[in-house]
Amino acid sequence: MGSDVVHDILGVGFGPSNLALSIAVEEYNAGLAADRRLDALFLERQPGFGWHRGMLIDDATMQVSFLKDLVTLRNPTSDYSFLCFLRERGRLIDFLNQKTLFPLRMEFHEYFEWAAARVGHLVSYGCEVTGVVPVRGEDGRVSCFDVTSRRAGGPGGTVTHRARNISVAAGLEPHIPPGLEPAERVWHNSELIPRAAALAAEGAPVRRVVVLGAGQSAAEAVDYLHRTFPDAEVCSVFTKYGYTPADDSPFANRIFDPEAVDVYFSAPSEVKQSLLDYHRSTNYSVVDMDLIESLYATAYRQKVAGRERLRFLNVSRIRAVEQGAGGSLDVTVEFLPTGERQVLAADVLVLATGYRPRDLSALLGEAAKLCLRTDGDAIRVGRDHRVETVPEVTAGIYLQGGTEHTHGLTSTLLSTVAVRAEEIHRSVLAGRAAA
Q1: CA-CA distance, 269 to 266, in Å (whole number)?
Q2: Residues 104 and 56: beta-carbon distance below 8 Å
């Protein structure tokens, strides 16, 4: 055991979701006597706070309002808000003069780092969770979990922490399409900036880059690579006819409201599926209209000038990737309507192919056997984000993410992190009061 302390909450992962929860705990504890405070610890495998670092393009903006920060929807008076961060950095008036709700993504990351540093005493970085084991009492009831971790990326023993509740926010992992494998010149877009920087530092000529995907990240990667390698041809490959605009209209955006989670959670399964189908265009495989128009305008200017560096291979699919001559890649692209294929000699292939939830069964280990599942083998989750478990379990497992089947489209987004943190915090307090 790492210590004799039994934590009230132990967080697995320390991205924005568990960061928001840590702030809720910190604000609750302020001014309370020691015996009334919640004891919290968060374990993060990265050496420091980081959120999609590989896609922090200098001019990319957030797609949610700054008011949907870590705290405002839970506590508008919190001094952990984005506006308080701006005031401390001396940029509040400058930001307001922009007349925008959408900060630069790199600035919002700076805000997250600022907030994470303020609750740094609750976090152990460089700790990778390797197992969660139920702790059974003499009566057979499970009132705690032992969470084992090891130092990430290096040798050393393991440390075990005991907790009455765990909050799992392990994030998403890059999705690699079947038949494709990451390699030195085949990247997932989550590594875009560092990989592109390393390639540029090599000094070798970059003649052609291929980007697979049709969502926001794909379009951003196309734009970024087109600017970063001014002599290269950038080919965007996707199965659609063209990029689909994101639906960010006011009524559609209500699908991300906290009240919409209540509606979704209580709806029959067929209604849940309908809501997901109707509103996928708010989040999945869609692109901001400004970026679509910018890319189209760039391609048209090049067509007029007679030097087309930006190419869009629509209604197409990558069928094969092989090592070509001189270290290049031979990327076989099929035009789906006719079946015609062409081979592109490329220096880089970027897979902007999205993310998927991490395997919770592997992460939770033995504790996963205690979780109840639906007929479709999905984990059953209550409205308070607590996993439904077998009756002898009184310890709590809370999921922050991976709950789209129960809580809707906000499951993996920033829109409701503050509200979700409050709901989990209240549930933990209620459980402690009932104990």
Answers
A1: 9
A2: no
Residue 275: partners with Cβ closer than 8 Å, 6 or more residues away: 255, 264, 267, 408
Containing 198, the helix (H) or strand (E) segment is helix 192-202
HSE-up (13 A, CA, CB side) for residue 198: 10
Angle between the N-to-C axes of helices 192-202 and 216-228, in degrees from 0 to 180, rounded to the nearest 10? 20
The structure's pTM equals 0.94
Q: At what angle do helices 105-118 and 82-89 cross, to 10 degrees?
A: 90
pLDDT digits over 322-348, tens only? Answer: 988 777 899 999 999 999 999 999 999
How far apart, in whole angstroms, are the C-alpha atoms of residue 223 and residue 217? 10
Place of tokens 């928001």: 20
Going 132 to 136 to 142 to 143, the CA torsion angle's sign is negative
Per-residue pLDDT reduced to its tens digit, 397-411: 999 998 999 999 988
Over 80: is that where the pLDDT of 157 sits?
yes
Q: Which of 216, 224, 222, 225 is nearest to 243 (CA)?
A: 216
> d(Cα 211, Cα 329) in Å, to the nearest integer?
13
CB count, 10 Å around CB of 292? Answer: 17
Tell me the pLDDT band of 3, cut-offs 50, 70 and 90.
low
Strands (E) located in 279-353: 310-313, 316-323, 329-335, 340-346, 348-351
Gap between the Cα atoms of 6 and 22, Å rounded = 17
- Structure confidence at residue 282 as a pLDDT band (50, 70, 90): confident
CB atoms within 10 A of CB 26: 17
The candidate with the shortest Cα–Cα distance to 13, out of 363, 384, 312, is 363
Q: Are strands 348-351 and 355-357 parallel, antiparallel or unpaired?
A: unpaired
pLDDT at 2: 59
Give me the half-sphere count of Cα atoms (radius 13 Å) on the Cβ side of residue 25: 28
Of all residues in the chain, what percent are helix, strand and coil, respectively (each to 5)?
40, 25, 35
State how beta strands 142-151 and 158-163 pair.
antiparallel
CA atoms of 207 and 231, how far apart (whole Å): 7
| Strand order across the 6-7 sheet | 6-7, 158-163, 142-151, 127-136
The answer to whether 310 and 295 have CB atoms below 8 angstroms apart is: yes
| 152 three-state secondary structure | coil
Nearest Cα to Cα of residue 360 among 213, 228, 115, 167: 167
In whole angstroms, give the CA distance from residue 220 to residue 60: 8
